[in-house]
């Protein structure tokens, strides 16, 4: 069993528990716009992640104060905060997301392995403005249904791909935002050229491209930008930083070579 399969098997159990308990979720907060703000920015934007631990790296910073960390991300110019809400494999929680959403003004991404609409309801009720759908984790029908379910609820959706075949399936949906994950979720191998290879296949100039995972240096940021990414999703590098302001400055690059020209 691959790690992704293990995670999905656990998600199935969690979802059944939520459904069997008859859980319903009411959302008070109006989603905060994400994509529309990116176009106006002069620099490549960063979605900054709260990531206590991961299957590939083990514990990263388990004792982190997630609210303080999120506020620091916001103060340093993050475009959004990603909160890993999975507990078993990432030591996060939906309560982390709720607390972060209550503390910041920028949009919050519910970073989880979503396979059922009830998870979308729960994410929105906890204050998420954006959700993630991982193409490798879903059938084409599930992907389309969950995408439309979320957008009807005024949530923005990052559709995540790692392989060309996944991207080709996804393009028929013509999603507003595509996340290209540089990490293979089955082997954990990270290759930033994944962004370069896949972004070149995205021809719709209105599609926002996010490069995800393994981004550590300014050179990495430039590589992703030159491939067409306007946003970087960064977890570990920010979580391990002991000087966030310095790290953000180091990663701050202008949209000098237009993402629209790179494709
Ligand atoms: O990070 C992992 O080990 C991992 C393993 C299996 C499924 C998902 C995983 N990570 C989720 C992510 O997508 C990353 O947290 C995110 O892109 C940030 O990556 P990084 O900057 O490398 O921490």
Task: Please provide a brief summary of the model.
This protein has helices spanning 3-20, 35-38, 66-75, 94-103, 117-125, 140-152, 164-171, 193-199, 218-227, 236-240, 244-251, 259-262; strands at 45-50, 53-54, 58-59, 80-84, 108-111, 130-134, 156-161, 177-181, 208-212, 231-234. It is an alpha/beta fold and 263 residues long. The ligand O=C(O)c1ccccc1NCC(=O)[C@H](O)[C@H](O)COP(=O)(O)O binds next to strand 10 and helix 10.
Written overview of the protein:
This protein has 263 residues and is of the alpha/beta class. The radius of gyration is 17 Å and the shape is globular. It starts with a helix and ends with a helix. Strands 1-4-5-6-7-8-9-10 form an eight-stranded parallel β-barrel, surrounded by seven helices. The protein has a two-stranded antiparallel sheet with strand order 2-3. It is built from twelve helices and ten strands. It has a single domain, classed as Aldolase class I (TIM Barrel, Alpha-Beta Barrel), CATH 3.20.20.70. The model has no long low-confidence stretch (mean pLDDT 95). The protein binds the ligand O=C(O)c1ccccc1NCC(=O)[C@H](O)[C@H](O)COP(=O)(O)O. Residues 3, 49, 51, 54-57, 181, 185, 188, 212-215, 233-237 line the site of the ligand O=C(O)c1ccccc1NCC(=O)[C@H](O)[C@H](O)COP(=O)(O)O.
């Amino acid at each position: 069993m691959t790690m992704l399969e293990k995670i999905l098997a656990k998600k199935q159990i969690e979802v059944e528990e939520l459904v069997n308990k008859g859980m319903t979720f009411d959302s008070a907060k109006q989603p905060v716009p994400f994509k529309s703000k990116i176009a106006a920015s002069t620099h490549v934007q960063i979605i900054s992640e709260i990531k206590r631990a991961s299957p590939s790296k083990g514990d990263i910073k388990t004792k982190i104060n997630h609210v303080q960390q999120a506020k620091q991300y916001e103060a340093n110019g993050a475009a959004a905060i990603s909160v890993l809400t999975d507990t078993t494999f990432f030591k996060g929680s939906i309560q982390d997301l709720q607390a972060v959403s209550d503390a910041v003004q920028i949009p919050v991404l519910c970073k989880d392995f979503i396979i059922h609409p009830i998870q979308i309801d729960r994410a929105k009720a906890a204050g998420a403005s954006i959700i993630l759908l991982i193409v490798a984790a879903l059938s084409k029908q599930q992907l389309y249904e969950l995408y439309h379910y979320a957008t009807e609820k005024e949530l923005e959706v990052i559709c995540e791909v790692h392989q060309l075949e996944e991207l080709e399936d996804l393009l028929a949906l013509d999603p507003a935002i595509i996340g290209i994950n540089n990490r293979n979720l089955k082997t954990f191998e990270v290759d930033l050229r994944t962004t370069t290879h896949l972004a070149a296949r995205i021809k719709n100039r209105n599609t926002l491209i996010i490069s995800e995972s393994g981004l550590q240096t300014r050179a990495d940021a430039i590589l992703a930008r030159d491939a067409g990414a306007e946003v970087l999703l960064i977890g570990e590098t920010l979580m391990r930083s002991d000087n966030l302001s310095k790290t953000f400055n180091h990663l701050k690059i202008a949209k000098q070579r237009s993402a629209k020209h790179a494709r």
